[in-house]
Design a protein that fits this description.
alpha+beta, Jelly Rolls, 14-stranded mixed beta sheet, 4 helices, binds fe (ii) ion
Length: 245
């Protein structure tokens, strides 16, 4: 660990996320931090350029896709604008979702860049949990990972406070795709950890990955709320996540 505080722990990765999945001692130390409900930041999990290119390519791809209605469930790749109150968490939200349930079916360049992000995430997730999740497919328990890029647009993209059922997900993964102060001025992911608030946008750079105990209360405050919302614009906050259900 290269820097720790009680409510969060920063772990700088030398060889990126792929190398971490083979490092038993590092995985144990992350498990211990998650067990005491510290928010773990994996610094340099991915090259910044990789996640920044991915967000631009996904944004372009989204414009070629039919806009699916909120709460669409499809075992495929699709673009949607989620808004209103989510039926599961009963929480107010507004964001653009690039759902990547079949990365193998994406066009060549996009498939390649999404694989370079979500495949190390999947391997880390398996190494951490001991699960045997598969790329694109349902595993032996009948569940699958749901890779997703989330764009909280400037002009108010947000996700109000909520908690998830801890099992079977165990940990949430959030890869930062944008830089606060450069790509957006306000809006961030927050966690209630150890009775304090951890604001990870003040701690993270593009390519860093947050690992958090899935039972922690968390939220996303509105992105650049004072700006006009342009639903076609790339502007705002971008993250990459991978729920398992
Ligand atoms: Fe969440």
């Amino acid at each position: 660990m290269s820097g720790t505080a009680d409510a969060y722990t920063i772990h700088t990765l030398e060889g990126g996320l792929a190398a971490l999945s083979r490092d038993k001692a590092a995985l144990d130390s992350i498990r211990a931090a998650i067990g005491r409900e510290s928010v773990v930041i994996l610094r340099d999990a991915f090259p910044a350029k990789l996640v920044e290119s991915a967000r631009e390519m996904l944004h372009r791809w989204g414009k070629t896709q039919p806009l699916q209605p909120p709460q669409t469930i499809l075992d495929d790749n699709f673009y949607t604008i989620e808004r209103g109150v989510s039926p599961r968490q009963k929480t107010l939200h507004y964001y653009h979702a690039y759902n990547l349930n079949r990365i193998g079916k994406l066009p060549g360049d996009l498939r390649e860049i999404c694989t370079r992000i979500f495949e190390p995430m999947r391997q880390f997730y398996n190494a951490y949990t001991g699960y045997a999740t598969l790329p694109d497919d349902y595993d032996e328990t009948g569940l699958k990972l749901h890779p997703q890029a989330i764009h909280y647009p400037a002009g108010g993209g947000h996700f109000a406070a909520h908690i998830h059922k801890k099992s079977p997900q165990e940990i949430g993964l959030i890869v930062h795709g944008t830089q606060k102060g450069r790509d957006y001025a306000s809006g961030s992911t927050g966690f209630q950890a150890m009775d304090t608030i951890v604001d990870t946008d003040d701690l993270c750079r593009p390519g860093d990955m947050i690992v958090f105990n899935y039972g922690l209360l968390h939220w996303v405050t509105p992105c650049d709320l004072e700006k006009a919302l342009d639903p076609r614009s790339l502007a705002g906050r971008w993250v990459f996540v991978m729920p398992y259900y």
